[in-house]
Amino acid sequence: MTTEHPTFPIPAAYPLELTAPGTVDGPAVDGGPLADLPEGSMRRVTHGDLDVLVVHTPAGVLAIDDRCPHMAAPLSIGELEGCVVQCPLHEGRFDLCSGDVVQMPTTGGLDAQGVYHPTWSPAGKDPKVDPPGKKAEARRLTRVRRLRYYPVRLVDGRIEITVPAESEPAHPAESEPGHDR
Q1: pTM over 0.90
Q2: Which of 27, 46, 127, 166 has the smallest number of Cβ neighbours within 10 A?
Q3: Which stretch of DSSP H or E encloses residue 141?
């Protein structure tokens, strides 16, 4: 996939089918000053219990969950090369502009389509051996989920991220067992 390189910061295009649920009517939260996010950089923005990775790629600015789609490690402490972010935990690599898995994590497992990929080891390291029993079974059944994107707007030099509308918490009395309504 070829990525157009804009001459000034713009929101990056992403696969619309990977837009996070609930963001159509969700609120916009501040993602910080655009000037503090030069091309090739990324940062974490937290809203409630939601951690969002804001990234400035050659294709523009975009936002995804700040969680590896494999085992939820924070991608914000990983490595960014162009549009590809590498997870710091198992070295999975994900194309932020297309949503594709570029390299499965070292632990292998199932991709988003359910196809199994074996374990692998980076060059120069000892081969990764599957442990026996439940741990090996868990590795084989762990699925790398698709990336989840949050719409981004650039307004007056700031980054706005649309997040899911928060649902109202249940009233304490209604959530207690045996409570009659």
Answers
A1: no
A2: 127
A3: helix 134-141
